[in-house]
Amino acid sequence: MIEIHDLTKTYGRGADAVTVLDRVDFTVSAGEIFAVVGPSGAGKSTLAQCINLLERPTSGEVVVNGERLTDLDAKSLRVARRRIGTVFQSANLLSRRTAAQNVALPLEYLGVTTAQTKARVAELLDRVGLSPHADKYPHQLSGGQRQRVGIARALALRPSVLLSDEATSGLDPAATESFLDLLREVRDDLDLAVVFITHEMDTIVKIADRVGRLDHGRIAEQGAVVDLLLDPESVLGEALRPQSAASSAAPGQVVVEVTHNSVAVPGDWIVQLSNQIGAPVSVLGGHVGDVAGVSVGHWTLAVDAAAADKVPDAVGALGLAVRTDVAAASVVAA
């Protein structure tokens, strides 16, 4: 488990002081993936550096399995930091070392014997599916393969927390899917607490259990992905929903947008809605998907203007809600 309490990072002093992180709070349990999303300048990179203590927070706590890492001296911190494995953007592999030698690096720093290192590296490369590429150099590997080496290296010291800092940025869709599958697999197998920092909204729906929106250095909103998707008033939920093009309404019709806000939306809800408002309902566009076994989605509908005022109550009885305007644009900007 990792706990972040009132984490604050300020650069400079007095009138020149700039607070990049402002009392950030969240907890990630073992076996859970918590995503952090936000626009450029929100503080995501600084948060990643403070979590693994590459940057000392100005105040607040980073607690791993009950131990306050922020209270430790430099020597004790070097030992405690082994509990946090980090996968960086673009893997950060050493170009003059092979895949196997890159994975071995943390073990060599600890003075692990050659035989033990060799066995551990072989085990990790097999886990990430790169045993045949052990002797290849980074330039001989694809972007997705380099990130797999990065995961293997991050797991070398058997951490309890894994920090993924924009690790899918720059990967093509196939490599991203492969990386997410592997991340989910090691989370399940090793019962890791995973902090997944990203600006890519679609990856969050695919991988995260919970998510927090970082805005101007503060966690402005957080919750289970499913709960946010089912909340029509959630800025983050709105940003997480895939958007689809909608056609135009016919003359005499008005456009109404609705979203799932219940785990139980009947399959024939459009027919039921039409019956309840006594008017035809046209679907102009929409999207529905499965997240953690729950059907979530949003729809753009067209209804006769005379029946529009009946829609909110009618959809409410069907497990949906009329979607109000939410300012999600700032969440998505990268």
TrEMBL record:
<dbReference type="GO" id="GO:0005524">
    <property type="term" value="F:ATP binding"/>
</dbReference>
<keyword id="KW-0029">Amino-acid transport</keyword>
<keyword id="KW-0472">Membrane</keyword>
<dbReference type="InterPro" id="IPR003593">
    <property type="entry name" value="AAA+_ATPase"/>
</dbReference>
<dbReference type="GO" id="GO:0016887">
    <property type="term" value="F:ATP hydrolysis activity"/>
</dbReference>
<keyword id="KW-0547">Nucleotide-binding</keyword>
<dbReference type="InterPro" id="IPR050086">
    <property type="entry name" value="MetN_ABC_transporter-like"/>
</dbReference>
<protein>
    <submittedName>
        <fullName>ATP-binding cassette domain-containing protein</fullName>
    </submittedName>
</protein>
<dbReference type="GO" id="GO:0006865">
    <property type="term" value="P:amino acid transport"/>
</dbReference>
<dbReference type="InterPro" id="IPR027417">
    <property type="entry name" value="P-loop_NTPase"/>
</dbReference>
<keyword id="KW-1003">Cell membrane</keyword>
<keyword id="KW-0067">ATP-binding</keyword>
<dbReference type="InterPro" id="IPR017871">
    <property type="entry name" value="ABC_transporter-like_CS"/>
</dbReference>
<dbReference type="Pfam" id="PF00005">
    <property type="entry name" value="ABC_tran"/>
</dbReference>
<feature type="domain" description="ABC transporter">
    <location>
        <begin position="2"/>
        <end position="241"/>
    </location>
</feature>
<keyword id="KW-1278">Translocase</keyword>
<keyword id="KW-0813">Transport</keyword>
<dbReference type="InterPro" id="IPR003439">
    <property type="entry name" value="ABC_transporter-like_ATP-bd"/>
</dbReference>
